[in-house]
Amino acid sequence: MTPIGSMRRIVINSMRKVVPGPASVPPQRMAKRLAPLRSLAAVAAFLLAWQVLVPLVNIPDYVLPLPSVIAGRFAETFTLQLASLAVTAMTTVAGLAIALVVGVLLALLVVYVEGVKSVIMPFLAAFNSIPKIAIAPLFVIWFGLGAESKILLAFLLALFPIFVNSMTGLGEIEPDILDLARLAGGSRYRVFTMVRLMHATPYIADSLKVAFPLALVGSIVGEFIGGNRGIGQLVLAAQFNLDTALVFAALLSITLFTTAGIGLITLFERRFLKWRPSQRQR
C-alpha cells in the first residue's frame, strides 16, 4: 500500500472515531418504553376479538353486549356515572385515609412498645380472615344507610395491608444502621424521621397500591347491601333492569377510577421517592 493510501486510511479511521453516531438506547429502557404500547395493543386485540366473535356465536346483548354498545352506553350515562362515582370515591378515600393513619400508628406502637405485637397481630389476623360481606349488614344496622357504614367497610379492608407493610418498614432495619445514627448524635426523634420513616415510606406507598382497590371494594359492597347512592347502587339498578351494557359501563368507570388512584400513588413515588433503586434506574 502506498504512503498516500495509508494516510487516507488513517484519516478515515480517525474521522470515524471522532464523529459520534446516533445515541443508542439501552435494551431495558427501550423495553420499558414499549411496555405501554404492548399493553394497549393487547387490549385493542381483545376488544376487536370481542366485537367480531360475539355476533358469530349469537350471544344475546343482555348476556354479553358488544364493546361498541358498552361505549355508547358509557357516553350516554357519563354524567350519572360521574355523580355516582363521586359518592363512592368520597367514602373510599375517607376509609383509606383513616386506615393509613390507624395502620401507621398501630405499626409504631408495635415497633416501639415491646409485647404489643403478640397482642395486636393475632387479633388483626383473625379479624382480617372474616369475610367483610358477612358483617356488612351489621354495619348497616348500626350506622344506617349513610356514608358511615361504607367508610367503615373501606377502612377495615384497607387496614391490614397498610399495618403489615408499615410494621415491616418501620421495624425491619439493620441494627448497625440504627447504631450508626445514634453514634452520629441522632436523637430519638431524628432517628425516627431520618431512618425509620424514610425506610418505611416505600413500604407504605406499596401498601397503598394494594389497600386502595380493597377500600373501593369495601365501599361498593356497602352500597350493594345498604346504600341509596353510589356506583354500587347504579350497578344494582342496571342489573335489575337487565341493562347489561350499563353494568359493563359502570365496571369501566370503576376500573378507570382504580387506575387513576394507583397512578397518583405511582406519581408520588416518582416525585418524592427518587432515591429508591427502582426509581433511579428509570
Note the main attributes of this structure.
MetI-like fold; mainly alpha; 82% helix; 282 residues
Please render the helix and strand layout as text:
Elements: H1 3-18, H2 27-56, H3 67-76, H4 78-112, H5 117-128, H6 132-143, H7 147-171, H8 175-183, H9 188-226, H10 231-240, H11 244-272, H12 277-280
Helix pairs in contact: 3-11, 4-7, 4-9, 4-10, 4-11, 6-7, 6-9, 7-9, 9-10, 9-11, 10-11
| Global shape | flat
Would you report the number of β strands? Answer: 0
Give helix % range.
over 70%
Q: Rg from C-alpha positions?
A: 27 Å
Q: Which structural class should the secondary elements be placed in? A: mainly alpha
Say what the CATH topology is: MetI-like fold
Strand content: under 5%
Number of helices: 12
Low-confidence residue ranges: 17-21
State mean pLDDT (0 to 100 scale): 82
Order of helices and strands: HHHHHHHHHHHH
- What can be said about the biggest beta sheet? none
Number of self-contained structural domains = 1
Task: Give a short synopsis of this structure.
The protein has 282 residues and is mainly α.
If you had to describe this structure to a student in words, what would you say it looks like?
- This protein is mostly helical.
- The radius of gyration is 27 Å and the shape is flat.
- The two termini are 50 Å apart.
- Residues 17-21 have low confidence and may be disordered.
- α3 crosses α11 (244-272), α4 (78-112) packs across α7 and α6 crosses α9 (188-226).
- The chain has helices at residues 3-18, 27-56, 67-76, 78-112, 117-128, 132-143, 147-171, 175-183, 188-226, 231-240, 244-272, 277-280.
- The chain has twelve helices and no strands.
- The protein has one domain (71-280): MetI-like (MetI-like fold), CATH 1.10.3720.10.
